[in-house]
Design a protein that fits this description.
By secondary structure, the chain is α+β, with helices and mostly antiparallel strands. It is built from six helices and five strands; from the N terminus they run ββαβββααααα. Strand 3 and strand 4 form a beta hairpin. The N and C termini lie far apart (62 Å). It binds FE2/S2 (inorganic) cluster (FES) (2 copies).
Length: 162
C-alpha cells in the first residue's frame, strides 16, 4: 500500500506541489526532489547542523522534519537566501576571514549566523559561539567563523571591524 502524500508548500518564494513518501525528510525533499543541493546532509540525526534551513522564518534541522508535514509552509534554503542578497555581508566576511574551508558546514552556519544577528544585532563572541554550537565544523576550529560573524555585527552597527 502506498504511503505517499500530496504536499504543497513554498520554497524560496515559489509554490511547489509534489507527491512525497510519508517518511521523506525535508532535507532529502529539497536535495533529491527539488535539486536544491546547497543544504547538506551529515549525521541525519539532528546533531551536526549541516542540513539547517528556514521553516516559517525559524531555523530547523532538515533531517528532522518530514516533508509530508509541510502543507502550506514557507521554506527558505541557502539558495533562496543567497539570491535575495540578505546574507551577502556574511558570505563576504566568511570569505575574507577564511571561515569557509571545505564548505560543508557553511550553508548551515550562514543561516544560523543570520538567525542570530536578526534576533540579537550586538552579540558577544560568547553568544556567537553559543548560538553556533549546534553547527559542527571539522575544518576551521570555529575561530574564523566567530570572527566573521562578529565583523558583520560590528559593520551592521556602524563600527569599523578590527
Ligand atoms: S544532517 Fe541534520 S543535523 Fe546533521
Ligand atoms: S569548513 Fe569544512 S566543515 Fe566547516
Amino acid at each position: 500500500m502506498s504511503t505517499d502524500v500530496n504536499v504543497t508548500l513554498t520554497v524560496n518564494g515559489e509554490r511547489v506541489s509534489r507527491r512525497v513518501e510519508a517518511r521523506r525528510h525535508l532535507i532529502d525533499f529539497l536535495r533529491l526532489d527539488l535539486g536544491l543541493m546547497g543544504s547538506h546532509t551529515g549525521c541525519e540525526h539532528g546533531i551536526c547542523g549541516a542540513c539547517t534551513v528556514r521553516l516559517d522564518g525559524a531555523i530547523v534541522r532538515g533531517c528532522l522534519v518530514l516533508a509530508a508535514s509541510l502543507e502550506g509552509a514557507q521554506v527558505e534554503t541557502i539558495e533562496g537566501v543567497s539570491d535575495t542578497g540578505e546574507i551577502r555581508d556574511l558570505q563576504d566576511a566568511f570569505v575574507a576571514r577564511n571561515a569557509s574551508q571545505c564548505g560543508y558546514c557553511t550553508p548551515g552556519m550562514l543561516l544560523t549566523a543570520a538567525d542570530l544577528l536578526k534576533s540579537n544585532p550586538r552579540p558577544t563572541r560568547e553568544l556567537i559561539r553559543e548560538h553556533l554550537a549546534g553547527n559542527y565544523c571539522r575544518c576551521t576550529g570555529y575561530h574564523a567563523i566567530v570572527d566573521a560573524v562578529e565583523t558583520v555585527a560590528q559593520k551592521r552597527n556602524g563600527k569599523a571591524p578590527p
